[in-house]
Specification:
Layout: E1 8-11, H1 12-15, E2 19-20, E3 35-39, E4 42-47, E5 56-60, E6 68-71, E7 76-77, E8 81-85, H2 92-101, H3 118-122, E9 125-128, H4 131-177, E10 180-183, E11 188-193, E12 208-210, E13 215-216, E14 219-220, E15 225-227, H5 232-237, E16 247-250, E17 252-253, E18 262-264, E19 278-283, H6 290-298, H7 300-308, E20 311-313, E21 316-318, H8 321-326, E22 328-331, H9 334-376, H10 386-397
Parallel strand pairs: 3-7
Antiparallel strand pairs: 1-9, 2-8, 3-4, 5-6, 5-8, 10-22, 11-19, 12-15, 13-14, 16-18, 16-19, 17-21, 20-21
Helix pairs in contact: 4-9, 9-10
């Protein structure tokens, strides 16, 4: 790229020193520590020691690849990061924002754990105007970004209110319905973990298999699937073929809130199987609707009980099939179940439409943020009203 007039263009590794972060023993960490301890995703805890005492830009090396964090004082970057002590020739905020604008996540070179190679980071091109110009640009940029951040907070609040309204309606409907106390296992004909498929042997053949992230509360994303490498006959022999009306539960997840999320399998028109990180429940259709079980698993007393049964081991939260089957379920009549499903469906439809609108606004905000960064580092921000027109042009082109 050709730099704006008066700006220098250089390879990052030629003007900055990229260092590896270092491990820090657990007994040296404390939330009350003076200096932040940073991993690739940001601050994890504190420490009384500082690996560096200068203004520092920390870049995610493993995990949250390319994430950029600025620390104005001392800090301890861990060994999942790189860190760059900011030299006097750079305004620290200018350097941090420019690195964010480079979208370093695209440099991920991994096949398993996301990772960023130092030589790839050092090969990036950096722009360097005079120091006073860097400060002017950052002031304008952060003024624009503060308005985007405020709008983003408002959008998040709208989403939260829509979800709270839906949860309230569901909880009231479930509590008012009453019914007979039973368990999930008692109203099921089959509760079964999915098929095991080794990641190393997965191939582009075989029956499609859902991924762990395919199942979210009340929703299954069939586009989030791979190939199992198993034939139809092998899937059937394992009892792993999904059918319309099956209820899938998340068995394991790094986020405990997503464990025991449930959704009903619709008619798909094609064969699918599911991995061993999910649990399939087939219900007795004479006593319970699949959709009612999914609703109860998301809200109310059943959801609370499911969450109490989640256990965490080695950073992974999970629920066993036995605990799932033993979970209490208040079971109304089929007619009342149908009424609850209909009432919640109406509210859910409205909430989904609102959340979809908010999602579009979030995508627009993301495009504007990228355009702002592009404008800032091509010397196209002047701090005047015409900035908005230029940002809109750039956002439309992204």
């Amino acid at each position: 790229m050709s730099p704006p007039s008066g700006w220098k263009l250089a390879r990052l590794g030629d003007i900055l020193i990229v260092r590896y972060g270092k491990a820090l023993q657990a007994n040296s960490r404390s939330q009350d520590g003076e200096f932040p301890v940073l991993g690739s995703a940001g601050r994890l805890t504190g420490t009384s020691q500082a690996l560096t005492r200068q203004p520092t830009v920390v870049v995610g090396r493993k995990g949250a690849v390319g994430a950029v964090h600025l620390v104005e004082g001392g800090s301890w970057p861990l060994d999942t990061t790189y860190y760059i002590d900011v030299p006097p020739s750079f305004e620290p905020r200018f350097l941090a924002w420019q690195l964010r604008a480079l979208d370093l996540a695209k440099l991920d070179s991994s096949t398993a754990v996301p990772s960023l190679r130092r030589q790839d980071l050092e090969a990036q091109s950096l722009l360097q105007p005079e120091l006073h110009e860097q400060r002017r640009i950052v002031d304008i940029l952060e003024d624009h970004l503060s308005r985007l951040d405020a709008a983003g907070s408002g959008l998040a609040s709208i989403t939260a209110r829509a979800e709270a309204l839906l949860a309230s309606q569901a909880a009231v409907s479930l509590a008012a319905a009453g019914g007979q106390m039973t368990t999930i296992g008692a109203v099921s004909t089959n509760v079964k973990n999915g098929v095991f498929v080794s990641r190393s042997t997965q191939q582009a053949t075989g029956v499609p298999i859902l991924r762990i992230g395919s199942v979210r509360p009340m929703k299954i994303d069939f586009s989030n699937s791979g190939r199992s490498g198993l034939t139809d006959a092998e899937v059937d022999a394992a009892g792993g073929r999904l059918a319309e009306g099956d209820v899938l539960f998340t068995r394991y997840n790094g986020n405990p809130e997503l464990v025991a999320s449930a959704a009903v399998v619709p008619a798909t028109g094609r064969a699918f199987t599911y991995p061993d990180k999910l649990i399939r429940v087939r219900v007795r259709q004479d006593v319970v609707r699949s959709e009612f079980l999914a609703v109860a698993a998301r809200w109310g007393a059943t959801r609370t009980n499911l969450q109490s049964r989640v256990k965490t081991t080695s950073g992974q939260a999970g629920i066993s099939g036995a605990d799932l089957k033993a979970t209490p379920l208040i079971l109304p009549s089929l007619a009342e179940q149908d009424a609850i499903i209909a009432r919640i469906g109406e509210v859910a439809h409205g909430a989904a439409a609102l959340i979809d609108s908010v999602s579009r606004a979030h995508r627009r905000s993301h495009a504007l943020r990228r355009a702002l960064l592009a404008a800032a580092f091509s010397d196209q921000l002047a701090g005047v009203a015409s900035d908005s027109d230029r940002i809109e042009e750039l956002a439309s082109a992204l």
